[in-house]
Design goal:
The protein is an alpha/beta fold. The strands form 5 sheets. Strands 16, 17, 18, 19, 20, 21, 22 and 23 form an 8-stranded mixed β-sheet that branches. It is globular, with a radius of gyration of 35 Å. The chain starts with a helix and ends in a 116-residue tail after the last helix.
């Protein structure tokens, strides 16, 4: 209660932030009059002035008002778009590193130009991230005109660009691209062998469009660069041949009771669980499959791989449909995003499913892949020094943005008041009842010509609804995988007269729906037909194409009107309702201005509009809300009878001349006809578990003060409705005698559903937050490995690092072999001699080891090791030595990191089982991954020393050494494979004296015992040949035999910190 009172007095934090930013708007506007006097060259020169001020010590905050004013003036001149005041607020929020929540149609693309221009002045680069290639290209071309006019460079990253072009694009002041392109370029850079081949130059500032989609929905989706593994693909072809011979059984949704399951077993060879996306062989199916494959027992451990292939083949044939879940393009199977309908080239289903689908489609089967590099979008974007985002729906996920990305959400006010009507949900008992209701409303609205955008939660639901409309003969467009490349075009035309568009809730994000449609697509196609490049077409060519496109759209509209054959009474009634609705619009709304133009010679109409201008905003909003008939009353109130300007409106509609003019307007202007019908109607067939997805769908209607409405249709059989105990409610509805097709409709029901969505959101957030802790483990290790690669590539410290490392390893060898505090089994000079020989090439007899003090021996060994290194360096020269070191070390790091990633995957798969032993899987995962990483670093260091000290350079006198061009980029762009390791490889045969596998950097109280008493005792210090390469050796449990390290004791690693503050935290 007190909190509400304080909020009412002082406002929310969002209110205070908006108020603070409004104070700066006037400062920005004060610069406009002076800037308008400047020539284009003088305005462009302002950029150099700003850069000079920054070089002299000014901050971005100091120049923000004038820089925003310059960008605003540039937009007015170049784009014919002057930033609204509310867009300035959004720009300031982005510059401060926050998320600007702005409603659909508020011009987020233009808003981004303000902080992008300001931050690009530092010369460190700005990345603008979009959800697809189309928007990246469109926005870079469109807004690029503004940047170039102000003296900045702009570029766009596209999927098929070569590394040379990518590097040039990242060197631009402002770079547009998709989240995937930015992420994959980061991974590819960290696989290259030359710093000059890196395409990215850092991560300074990123503006993420549709930030909730990228940083929430796709945040934990890993970007993976993989290479083919060694397994054969023949078995997939073999299994695919027998799948069609198996008899399909029942299709179910979810688990069934045991008695029901027994009956289902009799229906066929396999049962398909559509909800769980799984297929199970029945007992008869198992026998049938064994017979077809000529296998005695598929459950035999030796045949488990065959059974796995059969299961994946059944899933490919039963659950994955071409042009719905995937498409076949250029001989490749490309996954279709279930929620957006977009193609995802480069992504592959895991666990052999993708190969099974390839076998089904009779295309080349790619080998199963092993991960070479991976990162989640979540961790990629956290690398930026400053991160900001834009979307229309972020407030509901504000806690997650704050927790994970340290991003605040600022809700910017709209430029024009929102007058969209959001109807209560319609809840039906069964799915068929809901489908019939959806069909009725679509048919009714389509006959009147009002555009409808139908939102579904998946592509399968879209296809189901499209089939229903096709049976009814209702003309429609469904956005599915077949029309992926036309996604933006289809969605942008959803506001045309008579349009019925079916798409998933998240399809077409970033594309505005304009009432009456836009000719952009036609203009582009016309230019292509005339052999003119749309990107480089002259203004005259574009104008001619636009005129032709508008004429074609007008002809289409006229044809649609003629097809419906509306009578004169209908037209008059529509004209009267349109006149009543116009009073709801603000004075600068296009419809209000259109009617105002007709009122120049009509005093009564002008008086009506003047009275409308005088109405307070709340009363004008009520006009729009009463425009639509209410479903919750038996006798809807006549819209004109409750109009607040009923007297003035009655005089206007009594004039036949005025009505005739309005009828003519509605017959010639497609936009105004759609407005008269109520604008775009959003019809959703199901609620999403996240409120922001529903809000995003609703936001399609009512952009920039337009009229619009939305309604959600639900059934008790929907997944979300099961939270309410839908079976119990369904039974109650039957007992109450509710007739079939009778919905439950009330705002209270909608609010209850939203509360349920909040609960689901909280659960999902908890899950994602938990997964983040797992992902952070690998992320920290990746940062360490990529830091090591960077050091090697720069080459500045490599020589000293290797020499220091040789001394550390020497000390470790001596301590593990001779120090009684470490080696609990006594001295082991034989093992020390072998390890010095295998690692450094030093021939140190056992007698010398026994007859020399440890301190003197350490000094002698270090001196001799350094001498070996310096002799090689002198033999081939420092530059060539450094080059060979770089190549060797990079390949060692990459090979070991690849195997380490596989080890982490295996660890993560089974770590959940630790909970059965009353252990926290996350804590266990941290501990074991830390041990794996320590072993990884030891292997890298020891392999590095072994190669550097043992390889023998062979100089060729007949041919000078040629510089190697190793880019590490994509093979398709001409990049070379990494160079092979020098030959000959120093062979190292397994030896009982060296197979101990003790990590050098592990706490000293961990001891290892020899595998045989007869052999000399091994000691720690290097991984065995069997354990090199990650998973080649056996993983054994290490038990502590020494003294336990207390939490407050000094950490055994030698850092000087307490154990609980150092390695005890893992």
């Amino acid at each position: 209660m007190l909190g509400k009172l304080l909020t009412k007095i002082f406002g929310t934090k969002n209110d205070r932030d908006v108020k603070r930013m409004r104070g700066r708007i006037q400062v920005i506007s004060d610069h406009e009059s002076a800037l308008r006097q400047l020539t284009d060259e003088d305005l462009r020169a302002k950029t150099d002035v700003f850069r000079a001020r920054l070089a002299e010590g000014a901050t971005l905050e100091d120049i923000l008002p004038e820089a925003f004013a310059v960008a605003r003036e540039g937009g007015r001149r170049v784009l014919n778009m002057r930033h609204f005041d509310v867009q300035l607020i959004g720009g300031m929020a982005l510059h401060e590193g926050s998320i600007a929540e702005m409603r659909t149609g508020e011009g987020k693309t233009l808003v981004a130009t303000l902080p992008a221009y300001l931050n690009a002045l530092t010369g460190k680069g700005v990345h603008v991230v979009t959800v697809n290639d189309y928007l990246a290209k469109r926005d870079s071309d469109w807004m690029g005109r503004l940047y170039k006019a102000l003296g900045l460079t702009v570029a766009c990253i596209q999927h098929d660009m070569a590394d040379r072009d990518r590097k040039a694009a990242y060197a631009a002041d402002i770079t547009y691209g998709t989240n995937n392109e930015f992420g994959f370029d980061y991974l590819r850079d960290n696989m290259k062998f030359e710093l000059e081949s890196y395409v990215q130059r850092g991560h300074n500032f990123a503006i993420v469009d549709e930030v909730d989609s990228i940083l929430i929905d796709e945040a934990r989706t890993p970007l993976i660069i993989s290479g083919p593994a060694e397994e054969s693909t023949d078995l997939y072809y073999r299994v695919d041949q027998i799948i069609p011979k198996l008899i399909p059984g029942a299709r179910i949704a979810g688990d069934k009771k045991a008695e029901e399951r027994a009956e289902l077993e009799k229906t066929g060879d396999y049962i398909v669980d559509e909800k769980g996306r799984n297929v199970t062989l029945t007992d008869n199916g198992m026998s049938h499959a064994e017979k077809l494959l000529a296998v005695t027992n598929l459950w035999d451990p030796s045949n488990m791989d065959v059974l796995h292939h059969v299961n994946q083949g059944l899933r490919a044939h039963s659950l994955y449909t071409r042009d719905v879940h995937y498409v076949v393009k250029d001989g490749q199977v490309i996954i279709v995003d279930e929620f957006t309908g977009r193609l995802m080239p480069g992504r592959r289903w895991s666990d052999g499913l993708h190969q099974a689908v390839e076998a089904k489609e009779k295309v080349k089967i790619e080998r199963e892949n092993q991960t070479l590099a991976t990162i989640t979008l979540q961790n990629y974007f956290r690398m930026y020094s400053k991160l900001a985002g834009m979307t229309g729906t972020a407030e509901t996920e504000a806690p997650e943005f704050e927790k994970i990305y340290k991003l605040e959400v600022l809700v910017a006010p709209t430029n024009r008041p929102m007058i969209r009507l959001e109807n209560p949900d319609m809840v039906y008992r069964t799915e068929p009842e809901k489908d019939r209701a959806v069909l009725r409303e679509i048919k009714e609205l389509s006959e009147a010509g009002r555009p409808v955008l139908v939102g579904t939660i998946s592509i399968e639901k879209s296809e189901h609804l499209a089939a229903m409309l096709k049976r009814e003969g209702i003309k429609h467009v469904v956005l599915n995988a077949k029309y992926h490349e036309r996604e933006a075009d289809i969605v942008s035309q959803a506001g045309r007269f008579g349009a019925v568009t079916i798409a998933t809730n998240m399809a077409g994000r970033g594309t505005d729906i304009i009432l009456g449609g836009i000719p952009d697509v036609r203009v582009r196609n016309l230019l292509i037909e005339r052999n003119i490049n749309p990107d480089t077409a002259s203004p005259d060519d574009k104008k001619a194409a636009e005129e032709t496109g508008l004429a074609e759209m007008a002809a289409d509209f006229k044809k649609e009107l003629a097809h419906r054959k509306f009578d004169s009474k209908y037209k008059d009634d529509l004209a009267e309702r349109y006149l009543g609705l116009v009073a709801a619009f603000p004075n600068d709304h296009p419809s209000f201005q259109t009617v105002a133009a007709l009122a120049v010679h009509d005093p009564d109409l002008k008086a009506y509009l003047d009275a409308a201008e005088a109405l307070p905003r709340p009363r004008r909003n009520k006009i729009a809300w009463s425009f639509f008939p209410h479903w919750d009353v038996e006798k809807p109130v006549n819209f004109l009878e409750v109009h607040p300007l009923r007297a003035e409106l009655t005089i206007v509609i009594a004039s036949q001349r005025t009505i005739a003019a309005i009828v003519n307007l509605l017959d010639t202007s497609e936009r105004e006809r759609v407005v008269a019908l109520g604008g775009l109607h959003i019809l959703a067939t199901e609620r999403h578990e996240a409120r922001r997805i529903d809000h995003q769908l609703r936001g399609r209607a009512g952009r920039q003060g337009d009229i619009g409405s939305s309604r959600f249709y639900l059934s008790l059989q929907d997944d979300l409705m099961r939270i309410f105990g839908s079976d119990r409610i369904s039974g109650l509805m039957l007992k109450l005698g509710m007739e079939e097709d009778m919905p439950v409709e009330h705002p209270m029901v909608s609010r209850s559903i939203e509360r349920a969505q909040r609960q689901v959101e909280a659960q999902n957030f908890a899950v994602r937050k938990h997964l983040l802790e797992y992902d952070d483990v690998m992320n920290k290790q990746r940062v360490a490995i990529y830091g090591t690669r960077r050091m090697i590539l720069e080459g500045k410290e490599t020589r000293q690092w290797l020499l220091d490392l040789s001394e550390d390893v020497t000390d470790s060898f001596l301590n593990n072999a001779l120090d009684p505090k470490v080696s609990t089994e006594g001295a082991n000079p034989e093992g020390l001699s072998i390890m010095l020989r295998d690692t450094f090439g030093l021939d140190v007899p056992v007698e010398e080891i026994n007859g020399t003090a440890q301190t003197e021996l350490a000094t002698s060994l270090k001196t001799r090791a350094r001498a070996i290194y310096e002799a090689k360096e002198q033999q081939i020269g420092p530059e060539l030595m450094q080059f060979h070191q770089k190549v060797l070390l990079l390949q060692i790091v990459d090979a070991q990191w690849k195997d380490h990633l596989l080890s982490l995957d295996h660890l993560k798969e089974g770590i959940g089982l630790r909970s059965y032993g009353q252990r926290d899987p996350l804590v266990e995962y941290k501990k074991e991954s830390y041990n794996l990483f320590q072993a990884l670093m030891d292997r890298i260091e020891e392999e590095a020393l072994r190669w550097v000290f043992l390889y023998q350079p062979v100089m060729r006198t007949d041919e000078p050494p040629r510089p190697m061009d190793i880019t590490g980029g994509r093979p398709s762009h001409g990049s070379e494979e990494p160079p092979p390791l020098p030959s000959p490889l120093p062979e190292r045969k397994p030896d009982p004296v060296s197979t101990f596998g003790k990590a050098r950097t592990m706490p000293r109280n961990l001891t290892f015992t020899s595998s045989t008493d007869a052999a000399p005792k091994p000691f720690g210090g290097a991984a065995s040949p069997e354990s090199r390469g990650g998973n080649d050796g056996q993983v054994k449990t290490v038990r502590r035999e020494g003294v336990k390290v207390g939490r407050n004791d000094p950490c055994p690693c030698g850092s000087g910190k307490k154990y609980k503050k150092c390695h005890g935290t893992e």
